[in-house]
Amino acid sequence: LENHFHAPGLEDISTPGGMTPESVRELSAYAAARGIDLVPGTNVLSHMEGWFRLERYSDFVDGAMRSYPVLTRPEVWKLVRTYLDALATAFPSPNFHAGLDELLFTGTNPEAAGAIAVRGKPGYFADFACKVVNHLQKVHGKTVWMWDDMVLGKNIYRTEGFNDTYHEALDRFPRDVIMTHWYYWTNSDGKHQTIMKRVAGAKRPFVVAPSSLTCGYDFGSLIRAADNQSYMARCGLKNGAFGLVNTQWENRYGCSFLAGWPLQAMAAGFAWSGGTPPDSRFWNAFSFVLCGDQGALVRYLETIDRIQDLLNGHGVGPAAVRGLLFLHGPQRLWRQTTTGLTPTVRRQLRILLATARKHHAAIGDRDPELKRAMALGVTLFGEGLTII
Questions:
Q1: Distance CA 148, CA 180 (A)
Q2: Would the pTM count as exceeding 0.85?
Q3: Assuming Cys at both sites, which of 168, 246, 287, 347 could form a disulfide with 267, CB separation 3.0 to 4.6 Å?
């Protein structure tokens, strides 16, 4: 809900279709009747470009993409506090996810650069982030969650991170803040186990957070999502996480939540099973539970993966068909793909598309809306190949 909530007095930071306090209460009640706690998630020190498209905030914007506020400005805290108060009041949930991730490319605003020079980047971050946490805990009685990447996870040891000074930030946070450990890969490169050891060694409550991986692909990636989700579920079980949160991200290319729904459901399966690596029994059950068929859904999604891999292997990057077509139109899609996709490759793509259509036709009708949404994959690649 970075800027998708009509906070009283701040309605214009939200898109016209943003949530209102009334819709929040209605959805929360609907969820509660089904045993679900609807938790607000937002971000109030990064990923705020949706707010800062408004010119009135331009004098305290930091970062090349207008993503960060200058955290030392008094009016920034007033603005953020107003938004937090509105969310915390509207959502009856005892939990609140405050974000607090990826404060990385700071210092383009001289005021922010000066504050970082004086306080150090960990102190600059923690001064504001802990003010957010303390306000939510003490004023609203919320259990606060946050992404862990700046203080325990993957962004500590990058050039823009805190590096060996990360404890200067971590030690400032109350020990009951729930760390959400997001990681969207496996340990195939040998990097994650060191990070996982640090997260577990902090002795703080945490959950693991894999992804459905729809935002980085034209149609999501069943195999990569399964690898990430099952791996992270096993890591969580082994290292003391109390739960799993699967992430589903929007991006500028547009995403279909309905098309990504099976990958969300798959994450729930891995969470409940402890991350047992998928085998034929798992895949058959997956197809049957969601669609009532004997593996057609999986065969369809596997074929879509093969189409994406073939495109990626010939110079058409992940999500490029959707991105080029939606952002720049058919001419750009044609210009940037026609050289690498030789007649032989196009013929292979046509064969795979025909196979995908056959598998789509065999998907069960347990959820007709889901089957209809699944058609987006062959429609997108079919139209793209026609243009190419």
A1: 6
A2: yes
A3: 246
